[in-house]
Amino acid sequence: MPSQGRSTTGTTGPIAVPASRLQRAWLHRGVLACLLWPLSLLYAVLFGLRRWLYRMGWRTTERVQVPVIVVGNVIAGGAGKTPVVMAVVRHLQARGLQVGVVSRGHGRRTGDCREVLAESNAHDVGDEPLLIRRATGAPVFVARRRIEAARALLARHPATQVIVSDDGLQHLALARDIEICVFDDRGVGNGWRLPAGPLRERWPRPCDLVLHSGEHPAFEGGYTATRALAHDAVASDGKRTPLEALAGEPLIALAAIARPEAFFGMLRARGLTLAETIALPDHYDFEGWQRPAGTGQRLVCTEKDAVKLWPRAPDALAVPLDFAPSPEFFAALDAKLSSLDGYQAA
Predict the structure, then answer these.
(1) Which tens digits make up the pLDDT trace of 31-48?
(2) pTM (2 decimals)?
């Protein structure tokens, strides 16, 4: 049996800390959630007021000249949006469409509107936008306001036919034509809004497509996807190593994603031996991070982490995720896209 290894987490190195108490509270309507429930009422009022301002025209929703597909979620924390974005982009590209992507670029140290290039620094554009750009080749722009990113993208790439927004379900300034709401195995948790629960807004809500990114959907309805680790790990120079070749070798596994244990579990399920696991905060910038001392084990990480980790650990191996929404999901997406007024297929 693969070793469970030593689990560590922290901000500057492997410092053991307990799992998030709040994240656990969001799964049930326990004491902590009940204590926070009055604050969730205030959150709901403020969110409703914001929507009302847009509905009354006191805040403006702006439209661009091509269809916009928003991939987002209604729960706090990662639910697998970025793999969905990449899958949607690749599907539309396979149909011959010119696709662009906009994002806020969460965690970046810059605040301007800029294009993400393959050689961009993840600290300047965000780890997920850089991963999308490198994985799909689609033009990607980041800005604090996604409407600004969309305008800049169309100005630089006027042949773009469809824009996909990475996150932004609650970013009402950008008009959207199709909304895809992503859920993982947590579903809606305890069903309460922040901070008593994980919901950013009420559920159910109007939405065009619901996609479950996990292996065990927490509620019925919507479409499903298959997810598995790729067969090969990828080095910083592009060289590939079959995962089978790593079997039996003690490895250090690192993940700075919303649910690190999911990645570690998938590695173990592929028969890999994890001598140590390092769980870091989502979008961790790796500034000041040091590799565990006194160990000669090979380091494996997620594909998202690799874009920031490779400058510090060029020998690390990234293990990509093969994520495939069901054919029925893509058929429904194509049907909705084709029904839009003024839409021109490739």
Answers:
(1) 999 999 999 999 999 999
(2) 0.88
